[in-house]
Input
Amino acid sequence: MFYKDERLALFIDGSNLYAAAKSLGFDIDYKLLRTEFMRRGKLLRAFYYTALLENDDYSPIRPLVDWLHYNGFSMVTKPAKEYTDSMGRRKVKGNMDIELAVDALELAPHLDHIVLFSGDGDFRPLVAAIQRKGVRVSVVSTIRSQPPMISDDLRRQADNFIELNDLKDVIGRPPREYDTEFQQDPEDVSEE
Output
């Protein structure tokens, strides 16, 4: 599935990967994740996409974002929008799909293989466009959660599907307790 000499880039949809790992009962160790894919090919870039609440004094995701930034990940962030829904619940809206798609299409001519960490079916046309440029695309998500975290259309479009649960022993660690005021959980983050 991977060739040692191929140029490789990782595109991580932060909220989607967080939700998939959470549904499987583990956290991602990003140092191990980066090391694993450096072992699999010539890793040129590892992008991580997330929306951030800029107006909070403390965001639970800020330490992760800072750590990733200082440890070889290319961080792509933007301010999340906060609103109150009709039931009076605090909601956060932050979608990074366009940023991820633009970066992947721009970098594709310089790559042999893209690994997309997301199960979002909205990425199916992106995967098809990248494949037309001659770049292989692997998608990392899970079908072992209820419901499955990957769109069937995205899974079929990808050259290769990597079951996140199969990577658990390689890139996982036991879950930590978080302040869940704003953690990248799709239940709390609307992507509209």
